[in-house]
Amino acid sequence: MTDREQYYWSGSNGVLTHTKFGEDMANPFFDTEEEAKNFLERKAEAHGEERYKGMVLRKTGNDKVLEATQVLTDQAGLSDWGNKAVSDD
Predict the structure, then answer these.
(1) CB-based contact 30:8 (threshold 8 Å)
(2) Which residue of 2, 36, 47, 86 has the fewest C-beta atoms within 10 A of its own C-beta?
(3) What confidence score (pLDDT) does residue 89 get?
(4) What pLDDT, on a 0 to 100 scale, did the predictor assign at position 64?
């Protein structure tokens, strides 16, 4: 049996889920890092970035992949500005 790597968002309020199964179960896992990023961006657009800034993307095994602020900064185009500012020095 091969283990499939999956990704999920976690934060101080628990794990961010994206699909509910009935009343008692929900799926927090994404098959790719890109799917997880896109989901977070959509949630932030709908509910505000502040709600998600403390979240961390992890992969199965609890390994940290990246922080939500990195995704949300990229979404806003601020990373391009930051990279330009650093390269101008």
Answers:
(1) yes
(2) 2
(3) 39
(4) 81
Rounded-to-integer distance, Cα 14 and Cα 31, Å? 19
Q: Are 41 and 35 in contact (CB under 8 A)?
A: no
What phi, psi does 57 have (nearest 5°)? -80, 125
Mean pLDDT by 10 residues, the chain (89 residues): 77 82 81 93 92 90 82 65 41
Q: What values do phi and psi take at 61, rounded to 5?
A: 100, 0
Q: Contact at 8 Å (CB) between 55 and 68?
A: yes
CB 41 within 8 A of CB 48: no
Q: Which tokens is 67 given?
A: 């922080």
